[in-house]
Amino acid sequence: MARLPQRQRVAAYAVVLRDDRILLSRLDPRIARGELWTLPGGGLDHGEDPHQAVVREIHEETGLDARVSDAARIYSMHNPRAQHGEWPADYHALRIVFEGWVPVDAPEPRVVEVDGSTVESAWVPLADVHSGTVPVTDLVKEALRDHQPFQRQRLAAYALVRRPGPAGEQVLLVRISRLGAHAGSWTLPGGGVDHGEKPAVALSREVQEECGVPCVVGDLLGVHDVHFTGTAPTGRQEDFHGIHLVFAATVPEGAEPSAVEVDGTTDAVAWVPVADVGSGAIDALDVVRHALSL
After folding, report:
1. Domain-located, residue 49
2. What angle do CA 57, 60, 66 make, to 5 degrees?
3. Residue 188: is it exposed, middle or buried by C-beta count within 10 angstroms (0-12/13-18/19+)?
4. Where is the Nudix hydrolase domain positioned along the sequence (predicted)?
5. What pLDDT score does 86 carry?
């Protein structure tokens, strides 16, 4: 038997997750011979960096501007008698699979390349992938099996600001915008501590940015932490561990804070009755209840 011609292809792909969905591309039926979905990505051009290649391919196949991780996994597939175009070949595919993410406010995916191998792109429920309701390539199954969300630990400082109100004590809270985790929930004003920044300085800066008022930071009341997996404001899926330093704080008497942050993770600021937090009348994060118990 004559030896088949050898063909080798190097391609770059990305696992792009958002909550319980994954970004996939549906292959042209002339390639897949039926409905088949795969990871967005494709072949590297000669001399092209894999990071640049996968970002380019994601845009061509989904219309979305993605970022990808520095690290990647490598998958090798060897089929000594593959159908390569019109002719059989000894085919070897080397697949470089990155973690990818797109902004949370990105538009719906759509194919922008002309006459490419992709005819559709969509956010597909992971449940449909795992159940087989949506047929996917072996690469999707392998990549999901090995995927681990990015681990991120964040130190943040928050302010417990109280004042008397007409119907009882009030607490200053901010509402999380659609760009943040737990969108629509209320939390304490505050945020991340930059590298080398004193926590009290960070807190004063964050209150000014979120509420438009200065604050005087007092004593450290306690430490709270939270651990969950979800979509970060960047759009990246994260295994997130937040460590929260809760400080007593005051704002000028008579101050009426308001949301001044533009395109940030805060979309509203309010003095909220403490009783409404305890009764569950508003959706407040656990750090608020923890702070009020200190």
Report:
1. yes
2. 60
3. buried
4. 7-153, 152-294
5. 63
pLDDT tens per residue, range 102-113: 998 899 999 999
Q: Which two tokens stand for residue 253?
A: 């008497």
Instruction: In whole angstroms, give the CA distance from residue 266 to residue 173.
Output: 10
* Per-residue pLDDT tens digits for 40-96: 999 999 999 999 999 999 999 999 999 999 999 999 999 887 765 567 888 899 999
CATH number at residue 96: 3.90.79.10
Residue span of the structural domain in which 201 resides: 150-293
Question: For 173-213, what is each residue's pLDDT tens digit?
Answer: 999 998 888 999 999 999 999 999 999 999 999 999 999 99
Question: Are 107 and 10 within one domain?
Answer: yes
- Measured CA to CA in angstroms, residue 242 lies from 34, 75, 224, 237 at distances of 45, 34, 8, 15
CA nearest neighbour of 73 among 102, 95, 43, 51: 95
Domain end marker among 146, 162, 177: 146
Q: Which residues contact 202 (CB under 8 A, 6 or more apart)?
A: 157, 191, 192, 193, 194
Do 260 and 166 reside in the same domain of the chain?
Answer: yes
| CA–CA gap between residue 147 and residue 253 (Å, rounded) | 51
Is residue 1 domain-resident? Answer: no
